[in-house]
Amino acid sequence: MRSKSNLFAAFIALVFLPAMVGFIAPTDRSSGAGLLASTTNLLRGSLGMQEAQANESDTPFAAYQQGLSVLRREYAGAQIDDKKAAELTYAAIRGMLFTLNDPFTSFLDRSEWRQMRQSTQGEFEGIGAVLEPFGRDVRVVRPIPGSPAHQAGLRSGDIILSVGAHNAETGRLTGKTATMGKDINEVVALIKGPKGTRVSLTVLRKGSTTPITFTLTRRRIEPPVVQSWMRDDEAKIGHIVVNEFNEKCAPQFDRALQDLRRRGMRALVFDLRFNPGGLLEEAVEMGSRFVERGKTVVILQETAQVRREFRANGRRLVADIPIVVLINRSSASASEIVAGAIKDHSLGTLVGEATFGKGLVQTLFPLTNDTALRLSTARYFTPSGRDISNRYDDEHRPIFGTGGVKPDVQVAQSEKWEETQNFEDAEHDLQLRRAMELLRTKLAENERRAAR
Amino acid sequence: MAQPLRRALVVAASFMVVAAAFGAGRHLRQATSQEPAQLPEVSLEARVAGSSVGSAPPSREVGDAAETFLQVQRYVLTEYVDRVTDTSRLGRGAVRAMALSLDDPMTRFKDPEQRKELERQMAGRFTGIAATLRVVKQKRDGVDQRRLAVVAAAPGGPAARAGLRPGDVVEEIGGRWVIAYDPRLDLNRLELRTMDNTTYLRALREAQRKLTDGVTLARAVTMLTTGSGKELSLTVRRPGVAAPIKVSLTTAETQVNPIEARAVGAVTYVRVASFGGRVGQDFASALQARPRTPVVLDLRDNAGGPYTDRRAGAMASAMAVVQALGGTGQVGAVVRRGGRREPLEVQGPARARRRVAVLVNGGTSNLAELVAQTLREEVGAKLVGTRTFGDAVAQKLVPLQGGSALIVNAGKLVTAGGTDFAGRGLQPDATVAAGPDDPALQRAVALLARS
Question: Angle at CA A343, nearest 5°, toward A340 and A346?
Fold first, then answer.
C-alpha cells in the first residue's frame, strides 16, 4: 500500500523534470554568478575532437592518464584504489577546466548535478522554507508565504536543531535526526518528502530559552519567483521584483502586472537587484515585455562567424507607463540582458549600481556517470553591441566596474538594507525610494504637460 | 515494514536517473542521443587499455570516470566560447589538480618552467628571494592551515641578507595575506547562536574579502622564487617570536656554489649547500686532495630535495658523499607504500673512514638529514649545531611528457639503523646555537681535534 503511494509521488516529481532543463539557480545568491543556459549550439560539429584524436599523444587525456598511472605506481601517502582514482579523475577534470580561467565553467559531480536538478525544479514537495547554512547549523532564511512553514509559524532566523520523521500512514513520530554539523543538502533531504506526509522541526529561536517543535504536513510548493507591491497608493507606483529567470518567471510576472494594473498602476519599478540570472529564453521572453516587437533584445556571438540576434516576440505588456529598473552589483547575466535591452532602447531609467558584468552564456552538457558540464559557449552583447563582461586582472579576478550595465542614476544602498536585503523593508531601501521619487516627478511632469 | 519502503525508494531513484539522462528536455536529449556516434565505447576501452604506462586494466569505476574526462575534453575543444589552442595547458591543469587533490604538500606538479627553476635551484642558481620554501600543514586555532615556510635561505641571497631563517612563515606579501585556509571556516568557531544577523553577515563578508584580496600559495611561491630587481615587503612569523616581523628585500639572481672546501687548521671543512649535479664528484676530489684529515661537513641550510633516481641526481650525490667519508654497502632505505623497502646502497669502492663532524641546523632537511644520520651511524660522526628540520619524505621526481614532472611522495627515508627523523628531526650530539664567528664550526673543529 505504502510502496504504491511512494511510487506515485516519484512519478509526480518526474512530470516536472523536463521543466528544469538548462536552468540553474545558484544556491548562493551573494555570489551573483548566475547562469545563462542556451539550447543553441549542441549540434556544432565534432571537428575539434577529430583534430585532437589525430595527435593523440598530446591530448589532455593522455597527460591525465600518464599522471594517474605515475601516482598509482609511486604515491606512498595512501593507497590509490579505484574509488580514489575516480576522485582523482574528477579533480583532473576540474583542473583542466580551471586552466580556462572562466569562473562560469564548471564540472558538476553526481551530487552537485543532483542538487542542481532538485534546487532548480520550479516546484517541489516540502514545507516551503528557504534555508541557508549558518555556521555548523542550518537556519531558516524565510518561510515562503502561504506555505506550511509559513502557516505553522516558522520564522526567519530560526535555527534548525533536529528534524523528526513521521510514519507516512499514522503520522506518528518515528525518529529524530539532529542536524548540527550536517550539510545543508542533507537537511533539505530530511525535510523534503511526498505531499500529505508529516515532518517535524525543532528550532532554536532568538529570545526563546527552550527549543520549539513544529509539526507540518508537506505540500506542493511553488516558490515565488516574482513578488509585487503597490508602493504608492496615491501616485499608483507598482513594484515588481523578479528573483531569477526560470520558467515560472514570465507567467508570474504577467499575473503581478495584471494585478497591479487592476489597482490602477501608473508607473512601475522593475526590480532586478540580486537577480543572478537564469534561462536565456526567459531573458528574451522578459525583455519582450518591454521591447517593441522585432527589435533586438540580445545578440549572441557563438563563434567568430556565428552571430545570432534574439528579437522581441511581440508580447509587449509594458509600454505606456514610466519605468525605473533597479539594478545592483548582484544583478547578473540574464538580468543584465534585460536591463541592457531596456537601457539601449531608452525604455526606462536604470537606478542603483552597475551590474555584475557577466556577458557569457553557458550550456549544460549531461555526461556519463550522472555528472554534467556547465560550459561557457557564447558571448552576448546588448542591442547596441556592447560587451558587458568585466575585464580580469592578471590573477583572473574580475575587476568590478570595468563591465556591467551602468545605471542612469547612481544610488548607493543604505548599510541597514544591504544587511537584511529585505524587499519588504521599503523604508531603508534608498534605491527604491529614489526610484519612486523619480517616477513621481515624471508622473507630475506628464500631468503638467497633459494639462497644458 | 521497512523492506517495501526501501525497495520503492530504489525504484524511484533509478527513475530519476533515467529521467535525467534521457527525459530532461529537448537539448539535453540531443546531447545524449549524440553520445554513441561521437564516443564509441569500444574506442575508449582501447585507448584506456593501450595506455603506455604498464598498469592493471582500469576497473569499471575508473573507466567510467575516464570516459567522463574524454567527454569534457571533447566539449571543451569543440564547444567552448573561445577556441582552445593550447591543449597541453589543459593537460597540465589536469595533472596539477590530481596532485593537489591528494592534499599532500610533498606531492606536486611542476610544469616545464617550474621544473627548470627547480633544476636551477638544485644547481645553486636562485632567483627571487633565493630561499627554499615549503608548504607546511599545521593545525592552528582548530583550523587546518597550509602555510608557506622557509626551509633554507641561500647564503648571500636576498632572503639571507634580510635575515630570514629556517622555520619562518611568510604570512603576507606586499600587504596581501598568503591564503592559508578558507577564512570562512573561522565563522564556525564564532558563537553563531548568539550572534545577530548583522554581525554574522559582516563576518562572512570580511572572510570573503580576505579570500579575494589574498595571494594563493602557488602565486606566492612564484612571487618569491622568480624574477629579480623587484622590491617586496614581507610579513613573517618566526617561531618563538610573538610579534610579526616586517622584512623588505629586493629579488635578485643568486648563485650559490653548492660545494665549498677549505682547510681549517688540520681539519678539512666542506660545505655542501645542496645535492645534485657534480656535487658527488667534487666532494670526492676535495677529500682526495687532503687524505686522512678529519672532516667538518657543513650541511646547514641544505634542504635536500627531490631525487630523480637512485643512480642519478640528488640521491646519487648524497650517497657519493657518504661513500667518500667511508660509508659502505646498504646505508638506508626508502620505505614504499605497504612497507616495501627499496635499499639505498653506496656504490663504488670502500674508502677509508674519516673522523667526521657534521654541522646541522633547522634548515638541514630531507636528504641532508639522511646523510647526517647515516654518517652518525656508519662512521661515528658527531652532529653539531641545532635540531634539524625533520622531513623524511622521499620525494621522487618523475618526468612527464612535454617537459613537466610530478614530484611524488614516494615513501619514507630511513637509515640503516632505523632512525625515523620524520617530524622530529635529529638532535645534535653537541648543541651549539648560531652566533658570531661560527661557534658551531669552532666546536666541531675542537671535537675532532680532541678525539
Answer: 150
